[in-house]
Amino acid sequence: xxxVIKQHNKEYGExxxxxxxxxxxxxxxxxxxxxxxxxxxxxxxxxxxxxSVSLRDDQLVRLTNATLNDRKRFSLGTIKYRKEDRWGxxxxxxxxxxxxxxxxxxxxNITVEGSLxxxxxxxxxxxxxxxxxxxxxxxxxxxLGMTSMIRIAYQACTAFNNEAxxxxxxxxxxxxxxxxxxxxxxxxxxxxEIPFPFTEExxxxxxxxxxxxxxxxxxxxxxxxxxxxIERAFAKLKELKSGGFLRDFPExxxxxxxxxxxxxxxxxxxxxxxxxxxxxxxxxxxxxxxxPQYGKLMNRVQAGLRDLLEVTCPEVDWLTxxxxxxxxCLGSVQISNGFSGNIxxxxxxxxxxxxxxxxxxxxxxxxFHPRWYIYGGHEAAKVVLPEHR
Length: 389
Fold this sequence. Notes:
It contains eleven helices and twelve strands. The chain is α+β, with helices and mostly antiparallel strands. The strands form two sheets. Strands 1, 2, 3, 4, 5, 6, 7 and 12 form an eight-stranded mixed beta sheet that branches. It is globular and about 65 Å long.
């Protein structure tokens, strides 16, 4: 928080009146389960975003991205999406939505800062929109409830910016806790909080996140293209299903080629339904702290990502294969936390030094210096200045 205060002061010559802090999210399992309205496990992540705000006495809104050293501005009289404003549109969208709902504004100085700004567009859009809603709610005394905050942030992302946004990400940002994950039933848009036991406090096993450090753009287009293919495949599957929930479509009918789908669509539907069901199974394994079975489940999902969905890359394949070769490593899987090529590895604390030493080989082969940390979640989004709020 100290850095965003410093940057805001440097840019505008004044201390911010309000600062909101927003965590990133990490989908452990079920990253694609929204396609079948299945189940997913999502927690808060270590990367964070700060949004600081102060008032102006005119109709201008000035925006500073202290992390990327970039600046934007717009007039409250003409709030329009402009492609060249990039990240600035995410903040602008919130002002536009609130303005359309009758909120009166004077000018604003806004600074965004934090490691989350290096993540993909969907995560940056979601976090910036929510952080701006929280900050303006506190600054203007709007007294918005959680449902209203989610609605405004979602509209800013999707309607104003035409950017993908998951309600589950917004709910996680607002409700996540350290050492907890949220288990989502996406069909009914409900969730329950369950423990994530493999943190630093665990005597035997830890889950680490390994950032392969590949280019942020390396997998974005591929995954974006795959998501479009998933939408098409499930639109076709929905036509073929006679009733009930899409997530309950019999996987056996896909594997036996009973339904008339092309091979790519069949593989896609097979994987997404399997991933969703395994996320459902994983919730009880986390609750019972069953590390060996949870690790096996991670490996099954990773095999599906590689062989059925085909959304891995050589760097991720190398990191997960090295994990599988090491005694004490129970499982590894590619996760969705806004950063390309991140994986989670579940392993014994005794095996941790051996796996970390293998990361040196990775750097020699691929030329990237990987970063890792023990996963433990993060506090939910909140106002951190004024501190009493």
